[in-house]
Design a protein that fits this description.
This protein has one domain: Response regulator (Rossmann fold, 3-Layer(aba) Sandwich). About 40% of the residues lie in helices and about 10% in strands. The chain is built from 2 helices and 2 strands; from the N terminus they run βαβα. Strand 1, helix 1 and strand 2 form a beta-alpha-beta unit. The protein is globular and about 45 Å long. The chain starts with 16 loop residues before the first strand and ends in a 6-residue tail after the last helix.
Length: about 70
């Protein structure tokens, strides 16, 4: 089922970061299908983590862009 944030306008733009030990491809896809924005597996590789945070920052900058009229 979709994440609860989809039902709450205040939370709709909140990013969802999954930090887990699971690296199963099916589980990763399931998380993205449910609305995850970033999926990080532990142990965390610093470069991978930093890249994920940069992607999240880009996502947030796009999500907060004003609508074109």
């Amino acid at each position: 089922r979709r994440l609860q944030r989809e039902n709450d306008e205040r939370l709709r733009r909140a990013p969802v970061v999954v930090l887990t030990t699971t690296d199963d491809k099916v589980e990763i896809q399931r998380c993205y299908d449910l609305g995850c924005n970033v999926y990080i597996t532990k142990p965390v590789d610093y470069e991978s983590f930093a890249g994920a945070i940069r992607q999240l920052g880009l996502f947030l900058s796009v999500m907060q862009a004003p609508e074109i009229e």
